[in-house]
Amino acid sequence: MQPPVPHLPVPSERQLRWHDLEFYGFLHFTVNTFTDKEWGYGDESPGVFNPTALDARQWARTAREAGMRGLILTAKHHDGFCLWPSRYTEHSVKNCPWKGGNGDVVREFVDACAEFDLQAGLYLSPWDRNHAEYGRPAYVEYYRNQLEELLTQYGEIFEVWFDGANGGDGYYGGARETRRIDAQTYYNFPALWALVRELQPNAILFSDAGPDIRWVGNEAGYASATCWAKMHPGGIAPGKVDDLNRLGWGEADGTEWRPAEVDVSIRPGWFHHPHEAPRPLDELFAIHDASIGRGCCLLLNLPPDRRGLIPDDDIARLREYRAALDARYGHDAAAGKPAAASETRGDAPVFAAANVTDGNTDTYWTVNDDTRAATLTVDLGEPTRVTAIRLEEYLPLGQRVEAFSVELRVWDQWLETAVGTTIGPRRLLTFPALKTDQVRIRIHRAQACPTLKRVSVYTA
Ligand code: FUL
To answer: Average pLDDT of 115-139?
Structure first.
């Protein structure tokens, strides 16, 4: 029996690996940390950058303990200050007091990531409020040169983060004026992307509109409850509400595989400000369920302070968060349990319902080509207090499911306890606890015969 033909678009190998990361961290750190700003103007003296106890290993250890799989560092933010000794500018760590101008934050960062088995990614702001040539062709050349430095001198980079904030007022080498650019054409992004592909073929490219992953359209930590991993190609106009909505929802008939990354800070600001505090645990939990739980990856920002360390309060909050996540989602009551379906493709064991509980994410349940609605039941074997469920489609065959519900068996009835639209990479649904021995997934509608690779059931 042949597997279903892929329902296009399908993810690349690179995107498939990215989906598995689920959770990684952002580090916003630069002169702003010392000037108490969110956006530096570009006239900051490198002299202000003077962390007293910078320890990239502390960043990596914190991320690791929180369950993150990678970290992305702001090698250069909008103010233009470079955390590595770039040969193309003096506006960098070369001219700061930290380590007598001989330090390299990017180097310490990638080394720490390697030690703690984290993937390392970099943010290089296209907008540069320090550079005299910003807005003219010479700056684009400068940007390209810097990208090349970062992608050739620091080992494997898993993600390159192209920020969407573009142009405005700034120092610009002393001009102190407003410079507008056309973000769609000025940077020649296709050529920059080609450079990344050439130098780091495994790296994921993030920008508002992709090409590998898209922005989710807000910085609140929320994906839409309907969230397709697909989009139509084309640009995103900054601030245009229709476009932001499109980023949050994705597009059911999208022709490109372009899943959303949810970026949000553990604190109100992206950079550390002494008067701010980390978010409460319940907010972090809501962010988890609205990002990872809706099929996106979560990029959670942890801003180092003026010492160059992630503050104790943030570490304590992350520990609480990890412990609470493990308690709630650490044990899958469906693992290894029998499952049955209304239909199995060609009655072939290779596509059987039991594939969703076998712990192997290379196997999946599916049905015959013409089927669009079907049910799958997991038998928990004994009455179990069920509080949440996680579903995953088999992505190499594309995203298919459009509408589903979750039913729990009580008194021989099936009570509908949750309804949903998209599943995609994963869908987490929590609901009022109920004791049941059978959980049924009812797929109501799909774009092509549905697939599921895993069903997990949580009881805490
Ligand atoms: C935005 C930037 O303007 C913010 O400062 C921050 O870096 C955020 C992640 O992206 O576009």
So the answer is: 98
Ligand 1 centroid – CA 163 distance (Å): 7
Whether residue 75 is predicted with pLDDT greater than 80 in this model: the reply is yes
3-state SS, 166-225, equals CCEEECHHHCCEEECCCCCCCCCHHHHHHHHHHHCCCCEEECCCCCCEEECCCCCCCCCC
The per-residue DSSP string of 119-135 comes to: EEEEEE-S--SS-TTTT
Please indicate whether residue 29, judged by its CB atom, sits closer than 6 Å to ligand 1.
no
Residue 336: pLDDT band (50, 70, 90) is: very high
pLDDT of residue 210: 87
Q: Which of 27, 219, 247, 265 to mutate to test the pocket of ligand 1 (most atoms within 8 A of CB)?
A: 219
Nearest CA to ligand 1 atom 4: 270
Mean pLDDT, rounded, for 113-139: 98
Name, in order, each residue with C-beta under 8 angstroms of 447's C-beta and a sequence gap of 6 or more.
Answer: 7, 252, 399, 400, 402
Query: Which CATH number belongs to the domain containing residue 383 in this structure?
Result: 2.60.120.260
If asked whether residues 165 and 46 sit together in one domain, one would say yes
pLDDT, one tens digit per residue, over 135-170 is: 999 999 999 999 999 999 999 999 999 998 888 999
Q: Is the minimum distance from the CB of 165 to ligand 1 under 6 angstroms?
A: yes
Both structure tokens of 159: 């993600």
pLDDT of residue 146: 98
pTM: 0.98
- Domain of 183, CATH number, reads 3.20.20.80
Is 270 touching ligand 1 by the criterion CB < 6 Å?
yes
| Binding site membership of 218 for ligand 1 (Cβ less than 6 Å) | no
Cis peptide bond upstream of 4, omega within 30:
no
Please give the pLDDT value at position 34.
98
Alpha carbon of 271 to ligand 1 centroid (Å): 10
Q: Give me the pLDDT at residue 198, please.
A: 98
pLDDT > 90? residue 238: no
pLDDT over 90 (residue 427): yes
CA of 165 to the centre of ligand 1 (A): 7
Q: Do both 294 and 348 map to the same domain?
A: no
Tell me, yes or no, whether 289 and 367 share the same domain.
no
- 209 confidence band (pLDDT: 50, 70, 90): confident
Domain of 135 in residue numbering reads as 13-329
Residue nearest to atom 3 of ligand 1 (CA): 165
**Residue 411 burial (10 A CB sphere; 0-12, 13-18, 19+):** exposed
Pick the last residue of a domain from 298, 329, 360: 329
Beta carbon of 79 within 6 Å of any ligand 1 atom: no
Residue with tokens 């520990």, as numbered in its chain: 319
What residue type is assigned to position 66 of the chain?
A
Question: Is the CB of 263 within 6 Å of ligand 1?
Answer: yes
**409 domain-assigned:** yes
